């Protein structure tokens, strides 16, 4: 296990929501590991059990499954200071239907489910941190579902691009189309209208 003497982006992020002592930071740093990923590297592949949660300290990752039409269906992106995992596989211990892949060269801080449970005992305020983060993620997912059902494809694109303008430069067009629920061809038409 790696030991870190300097604060990791994760502990800086946690401190935005809860207080941590220097001893707490040391305990957290001892429980996590840092992984450097090249673009297209997989952290999780379908039919494997997800055993870790990943905090993105640099880069961009995606969570996707293969739908009945054999197309990649992206359900989540994660950029700096966001978490990503397959919660179902992590909790159940069953093989995942999802893949987690680096969209660009990335660095993540990972923690196993077992280590996280140990941290909740050693650093109790982490439960509050994770409750806040998970509630925000759930709210974002709920809003995304609402947008899919209440907005046209074009409205979804413009709404997303106004909320996350940086994604348009970082994420390939076909991935953004998958996430927003339409074809890359439709995405091209929308973008052509803009120019």
Automatic annotation (TrEMBL):
Species classification: Bacteria, Pseudomonadati, Bacteroidota, Sphingobacteriia, Sphingobacteriales
CDD domains in alphabetical order: CAP_ED
Identification of the protein by name: cAMP-binding domain of CRP or a regulatory subunit of cAMP-dependent protein kinases
Residue ranges of every copy of the Cyclic nucleotide-binding domain listed in the record: 35-120
Molecular function via GO: kinase activity
InterPro entries given in the database record: cNMP-bd_dom (IPR000595), cNMP-bd_dom_sf (IPR018490), RmlC-like_jellyroll (IPR014710)
Keyword field: Kinase, Transferase
Keyword Glycosyltransferase appears in the UniProt entry: no
Domain of life according to the entry: Bacteria
């Amino acid at each position: 296990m790696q030991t870190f003497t300097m604060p990791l982006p994760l502990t800086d992020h946690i401190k935005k929501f809860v207080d941590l002592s220097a001893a707490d930071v040391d305990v957290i740093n001892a429980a996590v590991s840092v992984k450097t990923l090249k673009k297209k590297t997989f952290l999780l592949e379908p039919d494997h059990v997800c055993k870790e949660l990943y905090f993105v300290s640099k880069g961009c990752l995606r969570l996707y499954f293969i739908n009945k039409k054999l197309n990649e269906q992206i359900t989540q992106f994660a950029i700096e200071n966001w978490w990503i995992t397959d919660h179902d596989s992590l909790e159940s211990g069953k093989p995942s239907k999802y893949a987690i892949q680096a969209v660009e060269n990335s660095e993540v801080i990972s923690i196993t489910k077992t280590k996280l449970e140990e941290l909740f005992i050693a650093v109790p305020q982490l439960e509050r941190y994770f409750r806040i983060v998970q509630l925000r993620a759930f709210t974002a997912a709920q809003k995304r579902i609402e947008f899919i059902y209440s907005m046209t494809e074009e409205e979804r694109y413009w709404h997303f691009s106004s909320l996350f303008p940086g994604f348009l430069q970082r994420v390939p067009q076909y991935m953004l189309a998958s996430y927003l629920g339409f074809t890359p061809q439709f995405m091209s038409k929308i973008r052509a209208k803009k120019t």
